[in-house]
Amino acid sequence: MWESESDSGVVGGGGREYGNGVLSSNKHAGVKTDGFELRGQSWFVATDIPSDLLVKIGDINFHLHKYPLLSRSGKMNRLIYESRDPDPTILILDDLPGGPEAFELASKFCYGVPVDLTATNISGLRCAAEYLEMTEDLEEGNLIFKTEAFLSYVVLSSWRDSILVLKSCEKLSPWAENLQIVRRCSESIAWKACSNPKGIKWAYTGKSPSPSTTGSNFASSSPKWKEPKDSGFYSSPSRNNNNNNQPVPPDWWFEDVSILRIDHFVRVITAIKVKGMRFELLGASITHYAGKWLPSLIKEGSPDEMSVSHGSSNSSGGSSGPDWRGGLHMVLSGKPNGHHHQQDSSSAPYLAGHGISPKDQRMIVESLISIIPPQKDSVTCTFLLRLLRAANMLKVAPALITELEKRVGMQFEQATLQDLLIPSYNSKGETTMYDVDLVQRLLEHFLVQEQTEGSSPSRMSSYADSGIPRANSISGGGGNGNQNAKMRVARLVDSYLTEVARDRNLPLTKFQVLAEALPESARSCDDGLYRAIDSYLKAHPTLSEHERKRLCRVMDCQKLSMDACMHAAQNERLPLRVVVQVLFSEQVKISNALANTSLKESTTLGEAMGTTYQPMIPNRKTLIDATPQSFQARRVGCG
Asked: Per the count of CB atoms within 10 A, which of 152, 330, 465, 587 is most buried?
C-alpha cells in the first residue's frame, strides 16, 4: 500500500504517467533546446536563439525566452506585459517560494525539458507553480495540475515521502500552509502511524544504518508497507527470514517524526491524537522529541532512554534500547532553527538540539507543554520536572508554567530528590541556590489534587461499593492509596529539606512553611524532618534561641525513633526545651513498651488461672515522678 518511494512515477486515476518520476509538458515549447547549462551563478538555455528575458532570484540569474514562460505562466505574462524594459526584459522574483531551485524546475517544464519529481522538490515546485499561476486555463496538464497529482497519488501514499515533503515545507511558509500541503502530509503521517504495524518491514525501522548506507539510500532505514491480502498483510522478506518472533514495536514512528520542526510536529501529534492513539504513546513520542531537540535541557538520560523508560510497557521486541537510532533523522539533516539548505543524499547527519537559539528553545518548550496529553502518567514526572526546569530557565509564559506545575502536582509522588533540585532562575533579588518556592507550589498542587480526588463523586461511590465509610475516606486522605502517596511525598519533602537546608541563604520562614505544608498524618515518623532540622542548624550556627525553638516546632518529638531520640538527646545544637521533650518522649515509649509486655504476660497468666489482671499504665505525672531528680531539675530550669 505504502511501498512507493520518491522515484515512483505512476499516477493512479486518469491513466496519466510521470515516466518513473520524470515530468514533461505535453506541448512543444516553441524553443528547441538540449537542456539548461549552469555557468557560474547563471543558467542559460542550450539553444541558438538569443535570450530576451532575464530573471533574477537572489544571486542566481536565468537567461530565458519570453514565449515558453508566457504560454504557461499567468504571472510571468502579466509581469512581462507591465514591464517597460527593452529586451532583455529584467524581472526580479526574490519572493518566489522554493527559490532558484524551484524556478529552475518550473522553467525546464516550460521548455519541455524532462523534470525529475522527488519528495524533496515537489513541495517547492508546487508552491512555485501556484506563485507563477501555471493553471489549466493556459494549458491542459499545466504544472499546478501535475504537481498536485504527484502529491496526492504518490507522496501521500508513502510514509517516507510524506515526512520528507513535510520537512521541506519548513522553508515554504505560508505557501505550503495555504495550499494545504502541511495539513495533508500531517494527516497522512497520522493515519499511517495509527494503522496496523504488522505490515512494516520493521527490521528497517529504528535501526542504525551502516556507514556505507547512511545518507545514500533511505530504504535501509525507512518503514515499508505491503498491500492487504486476505484480511492480512504480506510478510516482508526481512520478517520471513530473520524476525519471525519479533513483533513491530508500537513506537516505530518516533524517530522519523522527531526530525520535524516543532510546529509541524505539533500538527502531526494533534492529528494522531484525533485518530485515537494511546496517550502513553503520545507522551512517549513527546519525550523522545524533547530529548532529540533539547538534549542540554532535558538532560540526565539520553532521549531514547527517556522515551522508552516511560513507555517500556508499550514497546515490545526490545527495539527501543539505548542504541535505538535510525529513521529519517539519520539521513535528512537540517538546522533546527529553520534555516535549511538544499538536502541531498550525501548530507551528513545533523544532531538536532545543538546551536538552537534560546528563542527557538522557548518555542519548543511552550509547544511541548501545550500538547502533552491531559491524562495522568502520559509522561513521567521526571520528564515534567525537567521540562519545568527548562521552562523556568527560558522564561516561558507564566500561564504555561502554571499549567505544567499543576501537571507535576498530579504525579508528585513519583518525583525524585534529583528532580526537585531545580536552581532558582526566576527570583528577583533571590540568593537561594534552589527554587524552594517552586517546590512549595508543586506540593500545594499535589495536596489540592489529592483532596479533589478524595472528595470526587466517583471516588466516593467506590468507597461506598467497598464498604468504606465516607467520613473515614475523607479524614484518611482519600483512602489508602492517597495516604500512601502523601507518605511518599512526605519522605521526598524531608529529603529535599535536608538538601536545601545546607544553603546558608535559605530563610527560616521558607524552611518552616515547606515543612509544615503536609498534614500531620502524612508522617508516621519524623526522623527525616529531624535530619533536615539538624542540617539547617549546622548551616546556620548564628540562629538565636527563639529561632531555634521556632525551627524545632515543626517536629513532633513523639514521632522520633529510638535512634533519633538518642542522637537528639546529645545534640548540643537543639534548644534545651526540645532535648527535654525528646527525653520525656523516649521515657514514655520505654514505659509503654514495658507496660505492653507486662499486659501480655499478665493476660496469659490470667487466662491460665481463670482471672483477669489489669496492669496500671503510668500516665504523664507518674512518668515525671519516676524520672531522676536531676532530670526533673533540668526540666524545671528550662521551663
From this structure: 330
Positive or negative torsion for Cα 437, 439, 445, 450? negative
Match 497519488 to its residue by C-alpha cell.
Answer: 153
Residues near 404 by Cβ (< 8 Å), separated by ≥ 6?
Answer: 369, 384, 387, 388, 391
Q: Is there a contact between 500 and 434 (Cβ–Cβ < 8 Å)? A: yes
Lowest mean pLDDT among 112-126, 308-322, 561-575, 609-623: 308-322
CB-based contacts of 11, cutoff 8 Å, min separation 6? 17, 18, 149, 150, 153, 154
In this prediction, residue 578 carries a pLDDT of: 76
Does residue 336 have a cis peptide bond before it, meaning omega lies within 30 degrees of 0?
no
Tens-digit pLDDT profile for residues 527-564: 999 899 999 999 999 999 899 889 888 888 888 888 88
pLDDT score for 230: 36
Query: Strand pairing partners for 339?
Result: none
| DSSP classification of residue 423 | B
Buried b or exposed e, range 446-469, using 16+ CB within 10 angstroms = bbebbeebbeeeebbeebeeeeee
For the chain, the first-to-last Cα distance in angstroms comes to: 86
Between CA 420 and CA 425, with CA 421 as vertex, the angle to 5 degrees is 110
DSSP letter string over 491-511?
A: HHHHHHHHHHTT-TT--HHHH
Q: Is the pLDDT of residue 6 over 50?
A: no
* H/E segment holding residue 232: strand 232-233
> Which of 68-77, 204-213, 372-381, 554-563 is predicted with the least confidence, judged by mean pLDDT?
204-213
Half-sphere exposure of 529 (CA within 13 A, CB side): 28
